[in-house]
Design a protein that fits this description.
The protein is mostly helical. The protein has 2 helices and no strands.
């Protein structure tokens, strides 16, 4: 079945648990901040990894010769 709109968290809870209890409250949490600044980004880490792999291939070719 195709929905015309997405369900809210309230509606999902009501459908899963067959109703609503007054003791249940929904709380929106803000996203967690990073614990400490990262010295390297994911993209930089990927580039460094690729460079190391490429250097290893060249070293293996020189050893084979």
């Amino acid at each position: 079945m195709r929905r015309l709109r997405s369900l809210s968290e309230d509606e999902c809870y009501a459908r899963c648990y067959r109703g609503w209890e007054p003791t249940v409250t929904l709380v929106k949490l803000e996203p967690r901040r990073p614990r400490y600044p990262m010295p390297v980004s994911g993209e930089m880490l990927r580039q460094i990894f690729e460079e190391r792999i490429d250097a290893r291939v060249v070293d293996e070719e020189l050893d084979a010769a």
